[in-house]
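Example record

One chain of 302 residues, shown exactly as stored in the release files.
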Amino acid sequence: MKIKANGIELALEDSGGPGPAVLLVMGLGGQLIHWPAGLVQGLADAGYRVLRFDNRDAGLSTHFTAHGTPRIPWIATQAWLGRRPRVPYTLSDMAADAVGVLDALAVPTAHIVGLSMGAMVAQRVALAAPQRLHSLVSIMGSSGARGLLKPKPAVLRVAASKGKARGDAALAAYYVRFLQAIASPTYQPSDEALHAMFRLTAQRHAPDNAATYRQLAAILADGERAGQLTRIQRPTLVVHGADDPWVPPACGEDTARRIPGAQLAIIPDMGHDLAPVAHPEIVRRVLAVLLPFLQDHDEERA
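Predicted structure tokens for this chain:
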């Protein structure tokens, strides 16, 4: 289904049901289909109403094609210098989209669970609209503080090879290599599962480099969030993979330190790999910390 929110169209899937709502916010370039089926089912089986949506510039939601491809090196430099580069939209705009989903469905409050970039958007929701949250869950995210985001060189080399991919087969091979590079070294997704997900993604909406760069520009321009996280007053769980080579565990540790009272869960053997294809053991370990946290704060709200 599609809804109108914050002046744009957002594609949405709603599991329905009378239980507390959990709004899942996807990461950079991701689509709502990239949330692991086991995670979604685990939440639904625990009695939650699971809401998934495509962020702006992703999947079947509105794309901002008229803005073209941002100059990422220039935006990154301006942000590093402490300036406010002009970008097509901000993480605060994306947070307003998330709140707009709740408005469109007449959901007064929800647990907000964000993944990677989605964790940063979820942090923005907690800052802008704390009354709409049961709780905040930041998975594989960062505060945006300077000097934290230092991916491993081997992963950066794989990421840099994307520009050489020409044609559908080469692009599929690139995505498989990249997802394997950031995944758990112990619980790797299979080649078959990764290729199947790439085919499903391409059928629904093919990867869009310019759109991903526009989302990346929003991340880079969000330089003030780290200093604002002390204002978050909602119960918070920070989840991070012990073996994350893309957004290092120090990013999760820093986020948890900045948010008053935040709980930190470092998941053994987990990389940056909860989406789009996750090993069942990684999903099990995340649910093992996520569900008790959500249930504790259901009781508090009641």
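Notes: The chain has a mean pLDDT of 93.
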